[in-house]
Design a protein that fits this description.
Elements (H helix, E strand, L loop, with lengths): L1 H12 L2 H40 L2 E3 L10 E9 L2 E9 L21 E4 L1 H9 L10 E5 L11 E6 L10 E6 L11 H27 L3 H13 L4 H37 L15 H22 L1 H5 L19 H15 L13 H31 L5 H12 L2 H31 L5 E7 L5 H8 L6 E6 L16 E3 L2 H7 L2 E3 L7 E4 L10 E8 L5 E7 L4 E5 L10 E4 L8 E3 L2 E8 L2 H14 L5 E3 L4 H39 L1 H9 L4 H37 L11 H19 L10 H5 L1
Parallel strand pairs: 3-6, 4-5, 10-16, 12-15
Antiparallel strand pairs: 1-7, 2-3, 2-7, 4-6, 8-18, 8-19, 9-10, 9-18, 11-15, 12-16, 13-14, 13-17
Helix pairs in contact: 1-6, 2-4, 2-6, 2-7, 2-16, 4-10, 4-12, 4-16, 5-6, 6-7, 9-10, 9-18, 10-11, 10-12, 10-18, 11-18, 12-16, 12-18, 12-19, 18-19
Amino acid sequence: MSEFLLGLRLLFGSGRGSRVRFLLMTLGGSLGVCCLALVLTIPSILGAHDGRAADRDPQVFVGKKSGQPTLVVQRSDPHGSKPFSRVFLARGKDGADVRPPPGLSELPAPGEVFVSPALHDQLRREPGLKGLLPGEEKGLIGPSGLTDPNELYAYVGTTKDRLGDDARALKSFGSEHPPTTAVEKSTLDILRFALAALVLLPLGVFLSVCAKLSAASRNRRLAALRLLGLSTKGTQRVNAAETVVAAFLGALIGLAEFWLLNQIMARTGLPGLKWYPADGALSASTIAVCLIGCTALSWFVGRGSARAAATNPLSTRRTAAPRAPRVWGGLLLVTGLGIVVGYSATGLTDNPAQSTGINSLLVPGGVLLTGLGLVTVMPLLSYGIATRLARSGNLALSLAMRRNEVEPGSAMRVVTGLVLLVFSASLAQGVLVEEQQITRSDSPVQEYGLRLSQLSGEQQGRLRDIPAVRADAIVMDPRTDPDKEGGDWQAPALVATCAQLAKLVEHAAGCEEGKVLRLQDPNVSESPIKTSTYAMKQQQGGKHASLKVKVPDATVLFDGYDVTNMPSPGLLVPPSALPAHALPTAATLVLTSSSDPGTVRDVLDRVGAVAPTADVDPAGINIDGLQQITVIETLLALGMVMGLIIGVAAFLVSVTDRAVERRPQVTALSLIGARARTLRLVQCTQVVLPLAVGLLLALVAGKLAESAYLVTGGGETFWDGAGVPLLVAAMAGVLVLAVAGTLPLVGRRIDPELIRRD
C-alpha cells in the first residue's frame, strides 16, 4: 500500500506533464472501454430481440381440438424490404383461459385490431394497408410483444368462419425457441469472431498504448527510485499505481459514455437494427469485464513496462546499448500465415477444406494468430529496416533509422492500430461475401411478381417507372375448364416484345417481332400444346372476352435464370395480339432489377409504397434473410467505425506522446544546426516507413485470411479481389493521415532548458 500511495504522490506532484499524461491515459481508456462495452452488449441486444419473438410465438394443438377453442392463423408478407406480420385470432368459449400474448392485456374481439407503433404510423402514411387489417384499431402493442420498435406487427380479432381451413386451435403463447432470429446462431458466432478481430485486437493495443505513455520519462523516474533503495517489486508497484488508477477512472467514464451512447442509438437506430434502451443496458458481467479486466490489463502492462528500469536502472540512460527485439515476435505471424495459406491452398484442389471438425477451430485460430503476429512482428520489422537503412548517406534517413534502431518497440505502439484496421477490414469483407452467397442467389437479375388483379392501371405504370426496374412484362395464366378432363395442356403466355424478352432472360434465339412463338427452355421438358385460351376483360365497361391462341411451330429457345417467372414450355405473345383496351383476368406483372442487395431493398420499398396491399413474390428471396444480411452489414460497419476510431486514436496519442518525449533530442539537433525541414522529415520517416511496410503486410495477410475463411465457408467464391482497390485507397489515406499527424510535431521555439532538465 505504501508503494501505491507513493505512486499517487509522484503522479500529482511531478508537474503539469504528469497530470496531462494521466488525463490522456484516462480519456483514452474511457474510449476503449466504451467500445468494449458496445461489442459485449451486441449479443444481448440480439438475444432480447429473439427472446420476445419466442415469448409471443403461438403454440397450437396437434390435430383437431374438440369443443370451441380459440383459433389462430398467422400471415407474414413482405412490405417493401421488411416483413409485415399479422396474427388472426377467433376467440372461443373453451379458450377463455388462454392468456393474451405479451404486449396485450386481452385477446382482441371480432373487429378489433391491435397494431405496433410503427405500423400505426405506417397506416397514416399508407391508408391502403387497412385492407389487410379488417377491423377497427383499438390500441397499440406494448414493447414486451415486439422484437424492435420498427416492427410491423398486428393482432386481428375475427370470427371462425373467416379464418378458413388454415386455422388451428390455440394452446398458449410462448416457446423455448424463436420462430425466426435476428441473426442465425452460426452466423452470430462468425459475427462475434469478426468483431473480435475488428475491435478487440486494436482495443488491446490501444489500452497498452495508453498504459505506456511517456515511458522514457517514467523509466528514468523509476530508475531513480530504484537507485535510492526501493525494491524491484516496489518500483513496479509504484509505476502500476498510476496506470491502475487511470484505467479504473477511464473504465467508469467509459461505462457512462456507453450508457449515454445506448440511449441515443436506441432512439435513432441503425440501418436494419433498432432496439429498446433496456436491451442495451449494462449487465453485471459486462461491468465486471470492463472494470476488472481493463484494470487488471493496465496492472500487468504497468508492471511489465517498469521491469527494465526496476531490474537494471542504469539501462535507462541513452548510453546503454539497446537490446534487439527477439525473434519469437515473428513466430506468431509465421504460424498464423502457415495455417491460413494451407487452407487457402485447398481451394485450388478438387476437395477444398470445409469448416467442420478440427477445421472450425484451426481457421479462426490461424486468423487470430495472424492478427496477433502483426502486432508482435512490428518491433522486429522496424528494427530490421532501421539497421539496414541507418548506414545510408542521407542525413534525415540516417537520423530517423537510428532512433527506430534504439527504440524499435515504439513502432508497435504508433502504427499497429492502423495496421490491424486494414487486416480486419479484409476479414470483414470476407464475412459479407459469404453471407451474401447464403442469403441470395447467384443470379445477376432479381424478379418480382405481382398479381395484375391487385393493381390498378396507374399503379402498373408507376411500378414500371421505378428507376431500378430494368424490364417488365406480363405472364398470362391460361383459362382452364375444371369440368373438362383430358385434352391438351394449356400453356401460360409471356406478353412481351423481343426486346423485353432479351432483358428478362440470359440468352434467347429465334425471336421474331410481332409473331406468336413457342417459348422453350432446353433444360425443361416440353409438353404437347395445340391451343391456349386466356380470359380477358375490357378496361372500359368491364366486359369479359377470351383470347384463343393457336400454337405455332416456330420456337424461341432461351436460357432462364435460376429462379424465374418465365414460362417454359409456354408462349410468347406480342402486345399487339391482345384485344384493344383489354387486360388478362389472371396474370402476373413481372419486374426485374439487378440482384444487388441494396437495389433489391430499394425496389421492394418502392413497390410497397406504390402498391401497399399487393402480394409481392420476390423470386428466390427470403425476406428474413434480407433483413439478416442488413443487420450483419450494419454490425460489421459499426465494428469498422469502432476499429477506425480506436486505430486513429492510438496513432494520434502515440505520435503526440512520442514527439513530447523526444523534445530534448529535437532541441539538441536544432542547437547544432539541424533545419526544421530536416527534423520534420525525420519525424515523418520514423513513422511512415514502418507504417507503409506494416500496411502492405497487413493487406497480404488479410487477403490470405479472407481466402481461408471463404474456402472453408463452403461457398463458390474463394478469392475475392473486388475489395483490393478500396483497401489500397484506405492504405493511401492512412499514410496521408500519418504524414499530416507528424509534421506539426516539431515545434518552432527552441528551449535549451529541456536539455538541462534531461
